[in-house]
Amino acid sequence: MFFETHLELLRAAAQANRTRVAWTGYAPITPPDLAQADAVLATFDGATLALSSPTGSVITADEISPYTGKALNVSYRAPSVDQALAGAAAVAATLRDADIERRVGVCLEALHRIHQRGPEFAAVTAHTTGQSLSMACSGSGTNALDRGLEAVAMAWSAMTRVPGQVSWRQRFGKSEVTLRKRFRIRPLGTALVVACASFPAWNAYPAILANLATGNPVLVKPHPRSVLATALAVGVIREVLTEAQLPADAVQLVVDTAEAPVAGQLATSPQVRIVDFTGSPTFGSWLERNVPNTLVFTETAGVNTVVLDSVSDLSAAMRTLAGGLSLFSGQMCTTPQNIYIPDAGVRTDAGVVARDDVVAALLSAIDDLAGAPRRAAAVCGALQSEATLHSITSLTDAAEANGTLLRRPVPYVHPDYPQARAVTPLVVRVDPRQGDTLPDGEQFGPVAFLVDCADTVSAVAHATASIRGHGAISSYLYCTDDAVIDEVADAYADAGASLSANLVSSMPMQFAAAYSDYHVTGLNPAGNATLTDESFIAGRFRIVQDRRQVEGA
Amino acid sequence: MFFETHLELLRAAAQANRTRVAWTGYAPITPPDLAQADAVLATFDGATLALSSPTGSVITADEISPYTGKALNVSYRAPSVDQALAGAAAVAATLRDADIERRVGVCLEALHRIHQRGPEFAAVTAHTTGQSLSMACSGSGTNALDRGLEAVAMAWSAMTRVPGQVSWRQRFGKSEVTLRKRFRIRPLGTALVVACASFPAWNAYPAILANLATGNPVLVKPHPRSVLATALAVGVIREVLTEAQLPADAVQLVVDTAEAPVAGQLATSPQVRIVDFTGSPTFGSWLERNVPNTLVFTETAGVNTVVLDSVSDLSAAMRTLAGGLSLFSGQMCTTPQNIYIPDAGVRTDAGVVARDDVVAALLSAIDDLAGAPRRAAAVCGALQSEATLHSITSLTDAAEANGTLLRRPVPYVHPDYPQARAVTPLVVRVDPRQGDTLPDGEQFGPVAFLVDCADTVSAVAHATASIRGHGAISSYLYCTDDAVIDEVADAYADAGASLSANLVSSMPMQFAAAYSDYHVTGLNPAGNATLTDESFIAGRFRIVQDRRQVEGA
């Protein structure tokens, strides 16, 4: 049985969730080479996948590799909204009545098999999202699997904190009453998981598996231009469900098109009781406001700020920051965007460095990265969407027009894919005190605003105000005074934001560790779903009890 | 410090929440005698209470004793909606920054002081709600305190499962990165607790204290005709907050009138992030649908069913059922309403008893209770509201007109208060197969419908259909076959309802034990808030983290 097979892993994950020390459930995945990746894509070229029993029309998804510019040419025999809902309803009772260990076992085995197929998943992920193959093995590979396992372990811990039964005895007046009570875990209802185009696994695995572990049938709706990696994951889960003698339709893939999206219709169906959404703030906040009486979990985006106060080694910090701006071409919800530099410059172990020199150091670090093709390719990957490139071009033109342009987002030269939608960071320099304006909210892609500010205090005030208005998922500070870090952390916490200080290392600054880092606080506009706190789990299941009086006990 | 004083109690409560065995944190409260109760009321006659620092107009509440018919004549210097919200905002940071133990300590000490003042609270509760003095000491006394303590312990357990800090170390490439991480509990925001007229403490204590323990400022809005008992509780909490050097306005009393209600305005204020409501299904479902992006916890009402299949001792079962119908004049959300009796009668140890004889036994048991004034007074109490009496009269007239009336709800003779709004159960007999209709949803007050049905299977089908449509909070079965109980429990569970079987004892059938019985499943229309599962707690707080890299560690 799958549960027993993976029980040791599950226990270790549950323990890591409690201690929050560094831990991983999955060995590193070795990236495929280019030929292997091409071979993976070739196997799907022209294929038609059916990942639900109810099947409606065939949709050929608009999936185009950001590296080759070629269509993946994969079709999906996808259910209509009504068919998908009916399919979920049809399996609900069986899934509900399966015991917890069977459902949890399916989740664990599915994670295991996805891990085993890591290189294949990485190839597909890279050619749909634009992630580099190495990132597809880590961020969308082991890290995503760890976040999935984290959620399964949290769900298992929560469910097993409810005892299965108890003999209850109490005196009422002269007589003692004994009741035999049972407590049973029951799912809330059909769940919808909406994944985003650029990072579909990291948020979707936790949502899908938390739902499945707690007994809720899941409809998975990937972004219409980034379907295949999610389809493969759904396929694995369906395969494991079947082997566990559970209905495959406990998880169904729903595919739509950009022209005829179905997420809103699904989310507002009375049958759908849980929605997990990763994507744009606009649709996320629409869901939060227009889908009442439903558990709505959102992770959208915000303005991630960096305050430069003081550092030991400026070059090291700028290398880290350049890496943070470049990583996956700024298409992560944790990418820094607004970088505050005080008028007095930045204090370092080698003395104060003037602001212009700090700026120069950052630009130089970006150029160094962009100028090394193999490294640039591994770090930057490619832009998932042509629309992001247009948006960056517009921002560049505007900055050039108003004299704030510092660095053009010129493409780096991809060593393997000359057609890649490659880009390096756009850097703009603004001074709000001079009337320069910062755009509202996140600018998707590698876009950095260097913000001149009076000092650290005013930088923090400006940054936290932007967080209150637009949200933030990750915030950064460089400061050598621990007491000041405490104060700044308090200010960010009061704005509902977490803070990372002094990240200068080979760890990407936006790295969020499963089992340790709580991702999204739920206290600012960037989303309400925390990976993974108890509120991400608790409402997905409820408890029904029965009690019967025991005579003469 | 209050936390240390009550730590042993808190630990025991947390343990009881896990094991769900019988346990109580509070010794029984001795009811006041009539003179003592009168003396309590006299101390408030003409008083004006101020239970918030921001104070607006003085409202003399429309509180009339269901026993004496006299006005309590208590006024409240209550804040306006804007004042209350501003008052909550003003204290939010201080409450948030107080450590968990201080806030939890306040909750525990407040429960302790309310318990110490048990007889005084009971007198006020009786003369506002109509509960008997003995019930006011148990249901609104120790049981409500236990439910409050249960919620505090659940909140404490949930918060302490998050470690305060961790040293996290992981290798990235050639270097090892050490991060010192802190995890801090943060409240969601201003909370509104709306209490009901007839049972204000039982649901409000858990909501108020869960909010307070997790750091959310609370606005408590009692029913305009049942304010004083809640006001006293708020007063105690404010007194303890002050002694703990926390702002008293962390809990404020908001008083409105039936003519100018403010709950909807408060609930939809963007500042209010949590709403706990106990009351009518109409307003509860309005809240569920019209207050998006807010944690909404509801407990309303449903159709509580009883299926009579078989019993050992029919008389004992009918005595229990008569008590259940009479207890607090049917004004509890757990009161049975629709009682199914099969065509073939009910099997007993003494042979099958025909339906007419079962009916006669039930009516006889009700009459026995109603005819014993002291016992009737202790069990039935009085009707909180004149409107309930009107509704019962209408139902009686309708039943008389269509020939379904079995028993008139004649008043019992209250031995101490001849003016009491006393009533005994109305019993109506219907056969849906003959075209008789059952009213939609709960009929508040002592109203029982005896429903003729073909057999147990059809009774369960009819009952669970009504639960799917109208909800249920408690459901009952009498059946001597354990395997059949399992089947019926499954059917009720599938309808999202809990089930109690074969309750025949001195324990009131609707008794729900804190720490053991989950109250409200959240899986049917009778509400979404379970006392007390983890979903009642989890979202009331979130976690912000900070992490800083440790050099050379």
TrEMBL record, chains A, B:
<dbReference type="InterPro" id="IPR016161">
    <property type="entry name" value="Ald_DH/histidinol_DH"/>
</dbReference>
<keyword id="KW-0520">NAD</keyword>
<dbReference type="InterPro" id="IPR015590">
    <property type="entry name" value="Aldehyde_DH_dom"/>
</dbReference>
<feature type="domain" description="Aldehyde dehydrogenase">
    <location>
        <begin position="62"/>
        <end position="491"/>
    </location>
</feature>
<keyword id="KW-0560">Oxidoreductase</keyword>
<dbReference type="InterPro" id="IPR016162">
    <property type="entry name" value="Ald_DH_N"/>
</dbReference>
<dbReference type="GO" id="GO:0010133">
    <property type="term" value="P:L-proline catabolic process to L-glutamate"/>
</dbReference>
<dbReference type="GO" id="GO:0009898">
    <property type="term" value="C:cytoplasmic side of plasma membrane"/>
</dbReference>
<dbReference type="Pfam" id="PF00171">
    <property type="entry name" value="Aldedh"/>
</dbReference>
<dbReference type="InterPro" id="IPR016163">
    <property type="entry name" value="Ald_DH_C"/>
</dbReference>
<dbReference type="InterPro" id="IPR050485">
    <property type="entry name" value="Proline_metab_enzyme"/>
</dbReference>
<protein>
    <recommendedName>
        <fullName>Aldehyde dehydrogenase domain-containing protein</fullName>
    </recommendedName>
</protein>
<dbReference type="GO" id="GO:0003842">
    <property type="term" value="F:L-glutamate gamma-semialdehyde dehydrogenase activity"/>
</dbReference>
